[in-house]
Amino acid sequence: MSDTGTAKPNIRQVAAIAGVSHMTVSRVLNDYPHIKEATRRRVLDVIEEMGYRPNMAARALATQRTQRIGVLVESAVEFGPTSTLRAVEAAARGAGYAVSSIAVGDEDEISPQDAVDNLTAQGVDALCVVAPRSSSIAALRKISISVPVLVVKPDDDPTFLTVSVDQHGGTVLAVDHLVSLGHRDILHLSGPLDWLDARARERAFHARAKEWGIRQRPIVVGDWSADFAYDFARGLRELPEYTAIFVGNDSMAVGLMHGLHDRGFSVPGDISVVGFDDVPLARHVIPPLTTVRQNFHALGASVVDILRAAIERRDIPQVTRIPAELCARASSAAPREGRA
Q1: In Å, how far are 63, 121, 142, 247, 307 from 26, measured between CA atoms?
Q2: 303 CB-near residues (< 8 Å, 6+ apart)
Q3: Directed axis angle between helix 37-50 and helix 11-18, to 10°?
Q4: Are the C-beta atoms of 300 and 90 separated by less than 8 Å?
Q5: For residues 164, 169, 172 and 174, what is the CA-based torsion angle, rounded to 10 degrees?
Q6: Residue 125 phi/psi, 5° resolution?
Q7: Can you tell me the distance from the alpha carbon of 220 to that of 12, in angstroms, rounded to the nearest whole number?
Q8: What is the chain's Cα-based Rg?
Q9: Residue 273: enclosing H or E segment and its boundaries?
Q10: Cβ atoms of 304 and 87 closer than 8 Å
Q11: pLDDT by residue (tens digit) across 167-225?
Q12: Cα–Cα dist 150/32, whole Å
């Protein structure tokens, strides 16, 4: 390869070495679909070998795009929204996009309208909304937005693009796991039901329990916090009839196990516990928590893939449900004899 000295390589040098036009290099960089795979591979190999980095300002002028995705995230203190934001940021960087994000909390004065206005004023090419409550989605529908919008939510939406981890499938994995161990009376400790994921898990739990023909009992609605679940467990007057609890997130599951221990009940000897999320701490509590893992890495990649397709006016990828995975650990076991 010719010596280019200390000067940064440019697109015409890449084209010359790859034996293509500079327009072909530009099309490869912008992921045009109608490029022969052998040509695409040759151009990418030269780009990597030369260490070529496209001029983002020039690309923005040429394409009328800023290569920037806006992310509006609500309840960013919770594990799910925070993990989703980080995954989108990582996937966007890998695709050559920058991310501008705004976190909106219950105590913030900034409204959804203000947040959207702030992001669109930065010239974002598309908007990802991680707004887990139904009231937030209702507010979003009232806002006129001039760029493609994707909402991370478990159900399809007639107004927005959507993608999410499969909440229904993850819940089915949890219930099937407990049933396979022999449990026939399972309590569901849910998250707040104005949260779309909590509602999806609650509905999936009841549907799967009905399919198995196991006892239908009222759920307990929590607030996602370990303290709520701890207080619930401490308030049990005696060992309950149910032999397992499916908990809406890992934070509540850890608080629940703490409360059951302090109340004098053993996990999983007296009651099995299954959570949802697979937070890093889940494998290190005693006993290690059986839970449902959400693949936030795949979720972030799908968000960026879908938004890039919308920005570039290509066919939208049809993968809108990311599979969940059961992580079976020591907090779940067969019910003690006489408790099944």
Answers
A1: 11, 27, 38, 50, 20
A2: 84, 87, 88, 91, 128, 150, 152, 163
A3: 130
A4: yes
A5: -60
A6: -80, -20
A7: 64
A8: 24
A9: strand 272-274
A10: no
A11: 999 999 999 999 999 999 999 999 999 999 999 999 999 999 999 999 989 999 999 99
A12: 22
User: If we measure between CA atoms, which residue out of 307, 276, 144, 119 comes closest to residue 202?
Assistant: 276
Residue 4 pLDDT level (bands cut at 50, 70, 90): very low
Residue 320: phi and psi, rounded to 5, are -120, 5
250-263 helix and 226-234 helix, angle to the nearest 10 degrees: 30
- Whether the CB-CB separation of 147 and 127 falls below 8 Å is answered with yes
Please answer whether residues 278 and 294 qualify as being in contact, where contact means their C-beta atoms are separated by less than 8 angstroms: yes
For the record, the structure tokens of 326 come out as 């059961």
- Residue 279 sits at φ, ψ, to 5 deg, of -65, 155
Write out the two tokens for 130: 């991680």
The answer to whether 230 and 255 are in contact (CB under 8 A) is yes
If we measure between CA atoms, which residue out of 287, 320, 286 comes closest to residue 303? 320
Terminal Cα distance for the chain, rounded: 72
| Mean of pLDDT values over 271-276 | 98
Pair 209, 175: CB distance under 8 Å? yes
Cα separation, 228 vs 77, in Å, equals 17
In this predicted structure, the answer to whether residue 2 has a pLDDT above a threshold of 50 is no
* Residue carrying structure tokens 């104005």: 194
Which pair of tokens denotes residue 193? 């039901």
DSSP 8: P
